[in-house]
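hey can u run this one w/ magnesium ion bound, need the C-alpha coordinates asap thx
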Amino acid sequence: MMATTAAPASAAPTTDYEVVIGLEVHAQLLTASKMFCTCDAQYADTPPNTLVCPVCLGLPGTLPVINEQAVEYTVRTALALNCDIPEYTKFDRKNYNYPDLMKGYQISQYDLPLSQHGWLDIETDSGATRIGITRVHLEEDVAKLYHRRDDLGETYSLMDVNRSGVPLMEIVGEPDLRSPEDAGRFLQTLRLLLRHLGVSTANMEDGAFRCDANISLRPRGSDEFGAKVEVKNMNSFRAVQRALAYESERQAAALTAGERITQETRGWVEERGVTVSQRSKEQAHDYRYFPEPDLPPLVLSREWVEQVRTQLPELPAARRRRFVEQYGLAAKDAGLLLASRSLADYYEQAVAAAGPEHARPIANWLLRDVVRLAGGAAAVADSKLTPDHLAAAVKLVAAGTVSVRSVPEVLAASFESGQPPAQIVEQRGLSQVSDTDALAAIVEEALDANPKSIADYLGGKPAAAKFLVGQVMRATRGKANPRTANELIVKALESRRTS
Ligand code: ADP
Ligand code: ZN
Ligand code: MG
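ok here u go:
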Protein backbone atom coordinates (compact mmCIF):
# COMPACT_ATOMS: atom_id res chain seq x y z
CA MET A 1 0.00 0.00 0.00
CA MET A 2 1.25 3.50 -0.79
CA ALA A 3 1.97 5.75 2.17
CA THR A 4 0.85 8.81 0.26
CA THR A 5 -2.76 7.69 -0.17
CA ALA A 6 -5.07 10.49 0.96
CA ALA A 7 -7.62 9.90 3.70
CA PRO A 8 -11.18 9.40 2.42
CA ALA A 9 -12.76 12.79 1.85
CA SER A 10 -16.14 12.22 3.46
CA ALA A 11 -16.07 10.39 6.77
CA ALA A 12 -19.47 10.12 8.46
CA PRO A 13 -19.89 13.49 10.20
CA THR A 14 -20.56 12.21 13.72
CA THR A 15 -17.24 10.38 13.83
CA ASP A 16 -15.43 13.72 13.55
CA TYR A 17 -17.09 14.95 16.72
CA GLU A 18 -17.33 13.84 20.28
CA VAL A 19 -20.77 13.91 21.86
CA VAL A 20 -21.05 15.58 25.28
CA ILE A 21 -24.20 15.03 27.35
CA GLY A 22 -25.30 16.22 30.78
CA LEU A 23 -28.68 15.25 32.23
CA GLU A 24 -31.00 17.05 34.61
CA VAL A 25 -33.49 14.75 36.32
CA HIS A 26 -36.55 15.77 38.30
CA ALA A 27 -37.93 13.11 40.64
CA GLN A 28 -41.12 13.47 42.66
CA LEU A 29 -40.64 12.36 46.25
CA LEU A 30 -42.74 9.70 47.95
CA THR A 31 -43.70 11.87 50.91
CA ALA A 32 -47.12 11.74 52.53
CA SER A 33 -47.75 15.47 52.17
CA LYS A 34 -46.71 18.20 49.76
CA MET A 35 -43.54 20.28 50.03
CA PHE A 36 -44.94 23.31 51.85
CA CYS A 37 -48.49 22.38 52.92
CA THR A 38 -50.37 19.43 54.42
CA CYS A 39 -52.16 18.39 51.22
CA ASP A 40 -51.68 14.77 50.16
CA ALA A 41 -48.69 14.52 47.83
CA GLN A 42 -49.68 11.20 46.25
CA TYR A 43 -52.19 12.42 43.71
CA ALA A 44 -52.28 9.48 41.29
CA ASP A 45 -55.86 8.32 40.68
CA THR A 46 -57.40 11.26 42.55
CA PRO A 47 -59.94 13.46 40.75
CA PRO A 48 -58.45 16.75 39.48
CA ASN A 49 -58.24 19.68 41.89
CA THR A 50 -59.16 17.72 45.01
CA LEU A 51 -55.78 17.93 46.77
CA VAL A 52 -55.65 21.67 47.08
CA CYS A 53 -55.31 24.33 49.77
CA PRO A 54 -54.56 28.07 49.84
CA VAL A 55 -50.80 27.39 50.08
CA CYS A 56 -50.47 25.18 47.01
CA LEU A 57 -52.96 27.39 45.16
CA GLY A 58 -50.53 30.24 45.76
CA LEU A 59 -53.06 32.53 47.40
CA PRO A 60 -51.65 35.73 48.93
CA GLY A 61 -51.20 35.80 52.68
CA THR A 62 -50.35 32.12 53.06
CA LEU A 63 -47.10 30.82 54.47
CA PRO A 64 -45.16 27.72 53.40
CA VAL A 65 -43.82 25.20 55.94
CA ILE A 66 -40.87 22.95 55.00
CA ASN A 67 -41.62 19.23 54.75
CA GLU A 68 -38.94 17.49 56.84
CA GLN A 69 -39.48 14.14 55.14
CA ALA A 70 -38.69 15.71 51.77
CA VAL A 71 -35.46 17.17 53.14
CA GLU A 72 -34.51 13.76 54.54
CA TYR A 73 -35.25 11.97 51.25
CA THR A 74 -33.16 14.49 49.34
CA VAL A 75 -30.27 14.16 51.77
CA ARG A 76 -30.58 10.37 51.61
CA THR A 77 -30.34 10.53 47.82
CA ALA A 78 -27.49 13.02 47.91
CA LEU A 79 -25.50 10.80 50.29
CA ALA A 80 -26.10 7.76 48.08
CA LEU A 81 -24.77 9.88 45.20
CA ASN A 82 -21.62 10.66 47.22
CA CYS A 83 -22.46 14.35 47.53
CA ASP A 84 -21.32 16.81 50.18
CA ILE A 85 -24.12 18.14 52.38
CA PRO A 86 -23.34 21.69 53.44
CA GLU A 87 -24.33 22.78 56.90
CA TYR A 88 -26.26 25.75 55.63
CA THR A 89 -28.77 25.73 52.81
CA LYS A 90 -31.68 27.91 51.78
CA PHE A 91 -34.62 28.16 49.43
CA ASP A 92 -34.93 30.76 46.68
CA ARG A 93 -37.66 32.14 44.50
CA LYS A 94 -37.38 31.42 40.81
CA ASN A 95 -39.66 33.90 39.07
CA TYR A 96 -41.39 33.25 35.80
CA ASN A 97 -44.85 33.53 34.32
CA TYR A 98 -46.69 30.48 33.16
CA PRO A 99 -50.26 29.35 33.89
CA ASP A 100 -49.09 26.24 35.75
CA LEU A 101 -47.37 28.43 38.35
CA MET A 102 -50.06 30.37 40.18
CA LYS A 103 -47.77 32.29 42.53
CA GLY A 104 -45.66 33.57 39.64
CA TYR A 105 -42.61 31.95 41.25
CA GLN A 106 -41.43 28.50 42.12
CA ILE A 107 -39.72 27.85 45.44
CA SER A 108 -36.45 26.23 44.47
CA GLN A 109 -32.80 26.43 45.47
CA TYR A 110 -30.22 28.56 43.71
CA ASP A 111 -26.75 29.20 45.09
CA LEU A 112 -26.84 27.14 48.29
CA PRO A 113 -28.38 23.79 47.36
CA LEU A 114 -28.89 20.92 49.78
CA SER A 115 -25.96 19.04 48.29
CA GLN A 116 -23.27 19.09 45.62
CA HIS A 117 -20.10 17.48 44.21
CA GLY A 118 -21.13 13.83 44.02
CA TRP A 119 -20.88 11.00 41.52
CA LEU A 120 -22.64 7.92 40.19
CA ASP A 121 -20.84 4.94 38.64
CA ILE A 122 -22.44 3.42 35.57
CA GLU A 123 -21.54 0.27 33.65
CA THR A 124 -20.58 1.15 30.08
CA ASP A 125 -19.04 -0.79 27.21
CA SER A 126 -15.65 0.30 28.48
CA GLY A 127 -16.28 -0.80 32.07
CA ALA A 128 -17.39 1.25 35.06
CA THR A 129 -17.49 4.98 34.35
CA ARG A 130 -17.87 7.66 36.98
CA ILE A 131 -20.37 10.40 36.13
CA GLY A 132 -20.19 13.56 38.20
CA ILE A 133 -23.24 14.85 40.04
CA THR A 134 -23.23 18.63 40.17
CA ARG A 135 -25.95 18.99 42.78
CA VAL A 136 -29.13 17.55 44.22
CA HIS A 137 -31.60 20.15 45.37
CA LEU A 138 -35.20 20.42 46.46
CA GLU A 139 -38.05 22.39 44.94
CA GLU A 140 -41.80 22.22 44.40
CA ASP A 141 -43.64 20.82 41.40
CA VAL A 142 -46.10 22.95 39.46
CA ALA A 143 -49.72 22.37 38.43
CA LYS A 144 -50.42 20.19 35.42
CA LEU A 145 -51.89 21.63 32.22
CA TYR A 146 -53.93 19.64 29.76
CA HIS A 147 -54.10 21.17 26.29
CA ARG A 148 -57.34 20.29 24.52
CA ARG A 149 -59.25 21.09 21.37
CA ASP A 150 -63.04 21.49 21.29
CA ASP A 151 -65.50 20.33 18.60
CA LEU A 152 -64.99 23.52 16.62
CA GLY A 153 -61.23 23.06 16.65
CA GLU A 154 -60.61 25.83 19.20
CA THR A 155 -57.82 25.06 21.63
CA TYR A 156 -58.22 25.46 25.37
CA SER A 157 -56.37 24.29 28.45
CA LEU A 158 -57.42 22.61 31.68
CA MET A 159 -55.46 22.83 34.88
CA ASP A 160 -55.08 20.26 37.67
CA VAL A 161 -53.61 21.75 40.82
CA ASN A 162 -53.13 18.39 42.58
CA ARG A 163 -49.52 18.29 41.39
CA SER A 164 -48.79 21.84 42.53
CA GLY A 165 -46.45 21.80 45.52
CA VAL A 166 -45.48 18.12 45.31
CA PRO A 167 -41.86 17.78 46.50
CA LEU A 168 -39.53 17.61 43.54
CA MET A 169 -35.89 16.66 43.78
CA GLU A 170 -33.64 17.92 41.01
CA ILE A 171 -30.50 15.95 40.25
CA VAL A 172 -28.09 17.76 37.95
CA GLY A 173 -25.42 15.66 36.27
CA GLU A 174 -22.05 16.87 35.01
CA PRO A 175 -21.46 16.86 31.24
CA ASP A 176 -19.55 13.56 31.59
CA LEU A 177 -21.66 11.33 29.34
CA ARG A 178 -20.31 10.60 25.87
CA SER A 179 -23.12 8.81 24.04
CA PRO A 180 -26.91 8.51 24.00
CA GLU A 181 -26.53 4.87 25.16
CA ASP A 182 -24.55 5.93 28.21
CA ALA A 183 -27.17 8.58 28.93
CA GLY A 184 -29.73 5.75 28.94
CA ARG A 185 -27.57 3.70 31.30
CA PHE A 186 -27.15 6.68 33.62
CA LEU A 187 -30.93 7.06 33.83
CA GLN A 188 -31.46 3.33 34.45
CA THR A 189 -28.84 3.30 37.19
CA LEU A 190 -30.26 6.42 38.79
CA ARG A 191 -33.83 5.15 38.67
CA LEU A 192 -32.81 1.88 40.30
CA LEU A 193 -31.01 3.81 43.02
CA LEU A 194 -33.99 6.06 43.78
CA ARG A 195 -36.26 3.02 43.99
CA HIS A 196 -33.85 1.24 46.30
CA LEU A 197 -33.69 4.28 48.52
CA GLY A 198 -37.49 4.32 48.63
CA VAL A 199 -37.57 8.05 47.89
CA SER A 200 -39.48 8.01 44.59
CA THR A 201 -41.47 5.63 42.42
CA ALA A 202 -39.23 7.01 39.66
CA ASN A 203 -41.88 6.00 37.14
CA MET A 204 -41.26 7.93 33.97
CA GLU A 205 -44.67 7.19 32.46
CA ASP A 206 -46.54 8.99 35.22
CA GLY A 207 -44.16 11.91 35.39
CA ALA A 208 -42.49 10.98 38.68
CA PHE A 209 -39.12 10.85 36.88
CA ARG A 210 -38.48 13.45 34.19
CA CYS A 211 -35.35 14.15 32.25
CA ASP A 212 -34.02 17.18 30.41
CA ALA A 213 -31.02 16.32 28.29
CA ASN A 214 -28.24 18.76 27.39
CA ILE A 215 -26.10 17.88 24.44
CA SER A 216 -23.24 19.47 22.53
CA LEU A 217 -20.60 18.33 20.09
CA ARG A 218 -16.92 19.18 19.89
CA PRO A 219 -14.19 18.21 17.47
CA ARG A 220 -12.51 15.02 18.62
CA GLY A 221 -9.45 15.80 20.71
CA SER A 222 -10.72 19.25 21.71
CA ASP A 223 -10.96 19.93 25.42
CA GLU A 224 -13.41 22.79 25.18
CA PHE A 225 -17.14 22.23 25.20
CA GLY A 226 -19.33 23.38 22.32
CA ALA A 227 -22.59 25.31 22.66
CA LYS A 228 -25.25 23.04 24.16
CA VAL A 229 -28.84 22.40 23.29
CA GLU A 230 -31.34 21.41 25.98
CA VAL A 231 -33.88 18.82 24.86
CA LYS A 232 -37.20 18.41 26.69
CA ASN A 233 -40.46 16.47 26.40
CA MET A 234 -39.15 12.90 26.47
CA ASN A 235 -41.57 10.51 28.12
CA SER A 236 -39.56 7.31 28.14
CA PHE A 237 -35.98 6.09 28.33
CA ARG A 238 -36.22 5.13 24.69
CA ALA A 239 -37.36 8.63 23.80
CA VAL A 240 -34.38 10.14 25.63
CA GLN A 241 -31.97 7.99 23.66
CA ARG A 242 -33.74 8.61 20.36
CA ALA A 243 -33.84 12.37 20.96
CA LEU A 244 -30.14 12.45 21.81
CA ALA A 245 -29.23 10.33 18.79
CA TYR A 246 -31.27 12.62 16.55
CA GLU A 247 -29.78 15.72 18.08
CA SER A 248 -26.18 14.52 17.76
CA GLU A 249 -26.77 13.84 14.04
CA ARG A 250 -28.44 17.19 13.54
CA GLN A 251 -25.64 19.09 15.27
CA ALA A 252 -22.95 17.14 13.43
CA ALA A 253 -24.55 17.93 10.09
CA ALA A 254 -24.84 21.62 11.00
CA LEU A 255 -21.24 21.85 12.19
CA THR A 256 -19.98 19.99 9.14
CA ALA A 257 -21.84 22.52 6.96
CA GLY A 258 -19.99 25.30 8.76
CA GLU A 259 -22.99 26.50 10.79
CA ARG A 260 -22.89 27.51 14.43
CA ILE A 261 -24.97 25.78 17.06
CA THR A 262 -27.03 28.28 19.00
CA GLN A 263 -27.76 27.63 22.64
CA GLU A 264 -31.48 26.90 22.77
CA THR A 265 -34.18 24.66 24.17
CA ARG A 266 -35.66 22.13 21.77
CA GLY A 267 -38.65 19.84 22.20
CA TRP A 268 -38.72 16.17 21.20
CA VAL A 269 -41.65 15.32 18.94
CA GLU A 270 -42.17 11.61 19.49
CA GLU A 271 -44.48 10.99 16.50
CA ARG A 272 -42.08 12.57 14.02
CA GLY A 273 -38.87 11.50 15.69
CA VAL A 274 -37.37 14.99 15.56
CA THR A 275 -36.49 17.88 17.87
CA VAL A 276 -37.88 21.34 17.18
CA SER A 277 -36.72 24.70 18.46
CA GLN A 278 -38.82 26.00 21.36
CA ARG A 279 -37.00 29.04 22.67
CA SER A 280 -33.56 30.46 23.08
CA LYS A 281 -32.30 29.38 26.48
CA GLU A 282 -32.94 31.85 29.28
CA GLN A 283 -30.10 32.94 31.51
CA ALA A 284 -30.26 32.67 35.29
CA HIS A 285 -30.83 36.43 35.63
CA ASP A 286 -34.06 36.07 33.65
CA TYR A 287 -35.46 34.24 36.67
CA ARG A 288 -34.58 37.03 39.09
CA TYR A 289 -33.69 34.55 41.82
CA PHE A 290 -33.75 35.86 45.38
CA PRO A 291 -33.88 34.18 48.82
CA GLU A 292 -37.36 33.00 49.76
CA PRO A 293 -38.40 35.50 52.45
CA ASP A 294 -41.18 33.27 53.86
CA LEU A 295 -38.84 30.42 54.82
CA PRO A 296 -35.96 30.28 57.27
CA PRO A 297 -32.59 29.03 56.01
CA LEU A 298 -32.07 25.35 56.78
CA VAL A 299 -29.22 24.41 59.07
CA LEU A 300 -28.54 20.68 58.88
CA SER A 301 -26.75 19.40 61.96
CA ARG A 302 -23.87 17.05 61.29
CA GLU A 303 -25.39 14.52 63.72
CA TRP A 304 -28.61 14.40 61.72
CA VAL A 305 -26.79 14.01 58.41
CA GLU A 306 -24.70 11.17 59.87
CA GLN A 307 -27.86 9.54 61.17
CA VAL A 308 -29.37 9.63 57.69
CA ARG A 309 -26.12 8.17 56.34
CA THR A 310 -26.12 5.23 58.77
CA GLN A 311 -29.72 4.47 57.79
CA LEU A 312 -28.87 4.15 54.09
CA PRO A 313 -29.79 0.71 52.77
CA GLU A 314 -27.22 -1.35 50.92
CA LEU A 315 -27.03 0.26 47.48
CA PRO A 316 -27.87 -1.68 44.30
CA ALA A 317 -24.35 -1.85 42.87
CA ALA A 318 -22.87 -3.16 46.13
CA ARG A 319 -25.72 -5.60 46.59
CA ARG A 320 -25.30 -6.95 43.07
CA ARG A 321 -21.60 -7.59 43.71
CA ARG A 322 -22.45 -9.30 47.00
CA PHE A 323 -25.04 -11.56 45.32
CA VAL A 324 -22.36 -12.74 42.89
CA GLU A 325 -19.78 -13.35 45.60
CA GLN A 326 -21.94 -14.68 48.41
CA TYR A 327 -24.43 -16.77 46.46
CA GLY A 328 -22.32 -17.68 43.43
CA LEU A 329 -24.83 -16.15 41.02
CA ALA A 330 -24.08 -15.16 37.45
CA ALA A 331 -23.70 -11.39 37.14
CA LYS A 332 -26.68 -11.29 34.80
CA ASP A 333 -28.97 -13.08 37.28
CA ALA A 334 -27.78 -10.85 40.10
CA GLY A 335 -28.65 -7.86 37.92
CA LEU A 336 -32.12 -9.24 37.25
CA LEU A 337 -32.75 -9.81 40.96
CA LEU A 338 -31.70 -6.23 41.64
CA ALA A 339 -34.24 -4.89 39.14
CA SER A 340 -36.48 -4.27 42.09
CA ARG A 341 -35.54 -3.94 45.72
CA SER A 342 -38.53 -5.98 46.80
CA LEU A 343 -37.48 -8.82 44.47
CA ALA A 344 -33.94 -8.77 45.89
CA ASP A 345 -35.37 -8.80 49.43
CA TYR A 346 -37.70 -11.66 48.52
CA TYR A 347 -34.75 -13.61 47.13
CA GLU A 348 -32.68 -13.18 50.26
CA GLN A 349 -35.60 -14.19 52.48
CA ALA A 350 -36.04 -17.38 50.48
CA VAL A 351 -32.32 -18.16 50.68
CA ALA A 352 -32.37 -17.51 54.42
CA ALA A 353 -35.30 -19.92 54.80
CA ALA A 354 -33.80 -22.70 52.66
CA GLY A 355 -30.12 -22.35 53.46
CA PRO A 356 -27.29 -20.90 51.38
CA GLU A 357 -26.66 -24.18 49.55
CA HIS A 358 -29.96 -23.60 47.74
CA ALA A 359 -29.11 -20.04 46.65
CA ARG A 360 -28.68 -20.81 42.97
CA PRO A 361 -31.75 -22.98 42.35
CA ILE A 362 -33.80 -20.41 44.23
CA ALA A 363 -32.54 -17.67 41.90
CA ASN A 364 -33.32 -19.85 38.89
CA TRP A 365 -36.88 -20.69 39.89
CA LEU A 366 -37.55 -17.17 41.06
CA LEU A 367 -36.35 -15.54 37.84
CA ARG A 368 -37.80 -18.16 35.56
CA ASP A 369 -41.18 -19.08 37.03
CA VAL A 370 -42.15 -16.80 39.87
CA VAL A 371 -41.47 -13.49 38.08
CA ARG A 372 -43.54 -14.71 35.14
CA LEU A 373 -46.39 -15.91 37.38
CA ALA A 374 -46.47 -12.56 39.18
CA GLY A 375 -46.40 -10.64 35.90
CA GLY A 376 -43.21 -8.72 36.69
CA ALA A 377 -40.30 -8.40 39.12
CA ALA A 378 -41.89 -5.70 41.24
CA ALA A 379 -45.09 -7.73 41.83
CA VAL A 380 -43.40 -10.86 43.20
CA ALA A 381 -43.29 -9.66 46.78
CA ASP A 382 -47.06 -9.15 46.84
CA SER A 383 -47.89 -12.62 45.62
CA LYS A 384 -49.38 -15.42 47.72
CA LEU A 385 -46.32 -17.51 46.94
CA THR A 386 -44.13 -16.42 49.86
CA PRO A 387 -40.33 -16.67 50.10
CA ASP A 388 -40.89 -19.54 52.55
CA HIS A 389 -42.99 -21.36 49.96
CA LEU A 390 -40.31 -20.97 47.29
CA ALA A 391 -37.69 -22.18 49.76
CA ALA A 392 -39.84 -25.19 50.65
CA ALA A 393 -40.36 -26.11 46.99
CA VAL A 394 -36.65 -25.97 46.24
CA LYS A 395 -35.90 -28.08 49.32
CA LEU A 396 -38.45 -30.70 48.25
CA VAL A 397 -36.56 -31.06 44.98
CA ALA A 398 -33.19 -31.27 46.71
CA ALA A 399 -34.52 -33.96 49.05
CA GLY A 400 -35.80 -35.95 46.09
CA THR A 401 -39.42 -35.70 47.21
CA VAL A 402 -40.56 -34.02 44.00
CA SER A 403 -38.98 -34.16 40.60
CA VAL A 404 -37.71 -31.01 38.90
CA ARG A 405 -40.41 -31.54 36.32
CA SER A 406 -43.16 -31.04 38.89
CA VAL A 407 -41.81 -27.72 40.23
CA PRO A 408 -43.59 -25.41 37.75
CA GLU A 409 -46.91 -27.01 38.68
CA VAL A 410 -46.19 -26.75 42.41
CA LEU A 411 -45.16 -23.10 42.13
CA ALA A 412 -48.15 -22.19 39.96
CA ALA A 413 -50.55 -23.86 42.40
CA SER A 414 -48.95 -22.20 45.39
CA PHE A 415 -49.05 -18.86 43.55
CA GLU A 416 -52.80 -19.32 42.95
CA SER A 417 -53.83 -20.56 46.38
CA GLY A 418 -51.06 -19.53 48.75
CA GLN A 419 -50.86 -23.14 49.96
CA PRO A 420 -47.48 -24.45 51.10
CA PRO A 421 -45.77 -26.67 48.49
CA ALA A 422 -45.74 -29.78 50.72
CA GLN A 423 -49.53 -29.62 50.92
CA ILE A 424 -49.85 -29.24 47.14
CA VAL A 425 -47.51 -32.16 46.52
CA GLU A 426 -49.56 -34.27 48.92
CA GLN A 427 -52.95 -33.29 47.48
CA ARG A 428 -51.93 -33.69 43.87
CA GLY A 429 -49.94 -36.86 44.45
CA LEU A 430 -46.82 -35.25 43.02
CA SER A 431 -44.32 -36.84 45.35
CA GLN A 432 -41.67 -38.95 43.73
CA VAL A 433 -41.74 -42.61 44.67
CA SER A 434 -38.32 -42.91 46.25
CA ASP A 435 -39.49 -45.35 48.84
CA THR A 436 -37.20 -48.28 48.07
CA ASP A 437 -39.61 -51.07 49.05
CA ALA A 438 -42.44 -49.71 46.93
CA LEU A 439 -40.12 -49.16 44.00
CA ALA A 440 -38.41 -52.54 44.34
CA ALA A 441 -41.71 -54.31 43.68
CA ILE A 442 -42.32 -52.21 40.56
CA VAL A 443 -38.77 -52.89 39.40
CA GLU A 444 -39.27 -56.65 39.74
CA GLU A 445 -42.47 -56.41 37.68
CA ALA A 446 -40.64 -54.49 34.97
CA LEU A 447 -37.89 -57.08 34.85
CA ASP A 448 -40.35 -59.99 34.73
CA ALA A 449 -42.17 -58.36 31.84
CA ASN A 450 -38.96 -57.74 29.83
CA PRO A 451 -36.77 -60.86 29.81
CA LYS A 452 -35.10 -59.70 26.61
CA SER A 453 -33.80 -56.56 28.29
CA ILE A 454 -32.31 -58.71 31.05
CA ALA A 455 -30.56 -60.86 28.48
CA ASP A 456 -29.33 -57.79 26.58
CA TYR A 457 -27.95 -56.23 29.73
CA LEU A 458 -26.24 -59.38 30.88
CA GLY A 459 -24.96 -59.84 27.33
CA GLY A 460 -23.06 -56.56 27.55
CA LYS A 461 -25.59 -53.88 26.59
CA PRO A 462 -25.84 -51.47 29.59
CA ALA A 463 -28.30 -49.32 27.62
CA ALA A 464 -30.92 -51.99 28.31
CA ALA A 465 -31.05 -50.75 31.91
CA LYS A 466 -32.19 -47.33 30.63
CA PHE A 467 -35.11 -48.94 28.87
CA LEU A 468 -36.12 -50.61 32.11
CA VAL A 469 -35.88 -47.30 34.01
CA GLY A 470 -38.27 -45.91 31.41
CA GLN A 471 -40.66 -48.77 32.09
CA VAL A 472 -40.59 -48.02 35.83
CA MET A 473 -41.15 -44.32 35.21
CA ARG A 474 -44.12 -45.17 33.04
CA ALA A 475 -45.57 -47.58 35.59
CA THR A 476 -45.36 -44.87 38.28
CA ARG A 477 -46.62 -42.17 35.93
CA GLY A 478 -43.41 -40.19 36.27
CA LYS A 479 -43.38 -40.15 40.04
CA ALA A 480 -40.47 -42.55 40.57
CA ASN A 481 -37.23 -40.93 41.55
CA PRO A 482 -35.23 -41.76 38.39
CA ARG A 483 -31.95 -42.09 40.24
CA THR A 484 -33.37 -44.51 42.82
CA ALA A 485 -35.11 -46.48 40.07
CA ASN A 486 -31.85 -46.73 38.15
CA GLU A 487 -29.97 -47.93 41.21
CA LEU A 488 -32.57 -50.59 41.97
CA ILE A 489 -32.67 -51.82 38.39
CA VAL A 490 -28.91 -52.13 38.08
CA LYS A 491 -28.83 -53.95 41.42
CA ALA A 492 -31.59 -56.36 40.34
CA LEU A 493 -29.89 -57.01 37.00
CA GLU A 494 -26.51 -57.61 38.62
CA SER A 495 -28.07 -60.03 41.11
CA ARG A 496 -29.32 -62.07 38.16
CA ARG A 497 -25.80 -62.21 36.74
CA THR A 498 -24.44 -64.02 39.80
CA SER A 499 -27.37 -66.36 40.35
P1 ADP B 1 -27.64 26.17 32.51
O1 ADP B 1 -27.04 27.39 33.10
O2 ADP B 1 -28.02 26.30 31.09
O3 ADP B 1 -28.69 25.54 33.36
P2 ADP B 1 -25.68 24.40 33.58
O4 ADP B 1 -24.23 24.71 33.50
O5 ADP B 1 -26.37 24.62 34.88
O6 ADP B 1 -26.42 25.15 32.42
O7 ADP B 1 -25.85 22.90 33.15
C1 ADP B 1 -27.10 22.34 33.02
C2 ADP B 1 -26.90 20.96 32.48
O8 ADP B 1 -26.28 21.01 31.22
C3 ADP B 1 -26.02 20.06 33.34
O9 ADP B 1 -26.60 18.77 33.39
C4 ADP B 1 -24.71 20.02 32.60
O10 ADP B 1 -24.05 18.79 32.77
C5 ADP B 1 -25.15 20.18 31.17
N1 ADP B 1 -24.15 20.83 30.34
C6 ADP B 1 -23.49 21.96 30.60
N2 ADP B 1 -22.68 22.30 29.58
C7 ADP B 1 -22.84 21.35 28.63
C8 ADP B 1 -22.30 21.14 27.33
N3 ADP B 1 -21.44 21.98 26.77
N4 ADP B 1 -22.72 20.05 26.65
C9 ADP B 1 -23.60 19.21 27.17
N5 ADP B 1 -24.15 19.35 28.37
C10 ADP B 1 -23.78 20.42 29.11
ZN1 ZN C 1 -51.90 22.37 49.67
MG1 MG D 1 -28.82 25.02 35.44
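The pocket of adenosine-5'-diphosphate (ligand 1) is lined by residues 20-24, 172-175, 214-216, 225, 228, 281 (CB under 6 Å). anyway lmk if its weird
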